[in-house]
Amino acid sequence: MHSRLQQDLEDFPQILDYTRQLAQTFLAGLEQRPVCPPAVEQQLQPEDKILLEEGRGALATLENFWQRYAAGLSGSAGPRYFGFVTGGGTPAALAADWLVSTIDQNSLLSHDTIAAAIELATIEQLKTLLHLPADFSGSFVSGATMANFVGIAIGRQWLGQQRGIDVAQQGVGALGPIQILSANAHSSSVKALSMLGIGRTALKNITQQADSEALNITALEQHLAATPGIPTIVLASAGTVNTAAFDDFPSLLALRERYPFWLHVDAAFGGVAACSPRHTHLLQGWQQADSITIDAHKWMNVPYDSAIQFTRHLSLQMQVFQNHSSYLEAPILRPDNYLHLTPENSRRFRALPLWIALKAYGRSGMQEIVERNIRLARQLGAALAASEGFCLLAPVNLNIVCFALTDVKGDAETARDRFIERLDHHGVIRCTPTYYNGQPGIRAALVNWMTEEKDIILALRSMQACRPDTSSSLGKTPLK
């Protein structure tokens, strides 16, 4: 054995203990850590860009990394990171994620680990939490992008089945032109169209409702009536990225009866609202979709690399993703035979963090996170609407606040970007830019399990301090 490996084997307890100390240090300072570290801290030193001939060993390398680069790590796991739709990691989920790397299980159905059984149980518990019916199957994938990919891939196979074509065998060219219809398809779904050979130009944007990002059902019906016979997938939204708008699922289902299409619901974060009795009405009818995306890293606060795809068409899923090899088990139709159900052959034990989190916090714990985030988002939205220099671009439907600057002198986009730069420099809150109805806007998405009212107060103070007319003396402010 290499001398460094041998030494690290002997030092394994110290290595793990030191790693625990680093993690504990990071978590203890998370609320004070800037949500966006300075650009200079995000750069590697020249010697760390090259491969060493002789390694330093684990302890020395860990120490070197932390001393040089800890300041370049964002506080994105903390309570005031409102950028994108980014959750953190609850204590139970974080602990489980550490174990996932330690026990290093390959979670396909290999008959040599309990991993597949736990994944299946997690899927069943998630269906119970979100009120999804028994005929849905599901599996864990790396993220919402891959969950959308899987759902659309199964939909592509279904389109072929309706016409006597096995797309998995014959290729998408045998099916001919396909149309993908949506009012607000997430960019990850558009990427999936490229990867699946359907093509980005297959996406046809349907008109939104007049006062919402939700799809205009009348416009969709008119388009379907004008394009009879074209294989169609409808991408519906359960929580758009700007305003958390939900499409009208009952109306979509009624249309599907007259114009057969595959209905995929991107519910990456919004689907988790189903765990709250106060908000489950937003998802009425989604139980009859053909495929659904949920991202556990968002509102379920599981560490990255944890999303779930659901479908009610298990046999079609196996047709797409089956893996044939002389040394592997042949495809057998069962909901836990993950080797034949997902894009990956080797898969890390992603289900464990969510399984542990569900056991640790139960239905009531997940519900409390969701309802608290929604309440705080509405509180932030109301405060911004009442504050000088800000206006809401849309009502706060759920957990996303979409707002803009007012009384801007000069170009609105430039003013918006400078405001976000000031926020980043201030280090208290992280928001991301967007456009809403053609107007430059700013998004704050609340999904972190630690976010409380005190964080909304700090966030609002930072936003007010970073307004263009108040930022000339802006400096770093202690978080107290």
Automatic annotation (TrEMBL):
Keyword Lyase applies: yes
Cofactor(s) required, per the database record: pyridoxal 5'-phosphate
Gene Ontology biological-process entries: carboxylic acid metabolic process
Matching InterPro entries: Aromatic_deC (IPR010977), PyrdxlP-dep_de-COase (IPR002129), PyrdxlP-dep_Trfase (IPR015424), PyrdxlP-dep_Trfase_major (IPR015421), PyrdxlP-dep_Trfase_small (IPR015422)
Modified residues (N6-(pyridoxal phosphate)lysine): 298
Gene3D superfamilies, per the entry: Aspartate Aminotransferase, domain 1, Type I PLP-dependent aspartate aminotransferase-like (Major domain)
This protein's UniProt keywords: Decarboxylase, Lyase, Pyridoxal phosphate
Molecular functions (GO terms): carboxy-lyase activity; pyridoxal phosphate binding
Family statement drawn from the similarity comment of this UniProt entry: Belongs to the group II decarboxylase family.
Name of the protein: Pyridoxal-dependent decarboxylase
Organism: Chania multitudinisentens RB-25
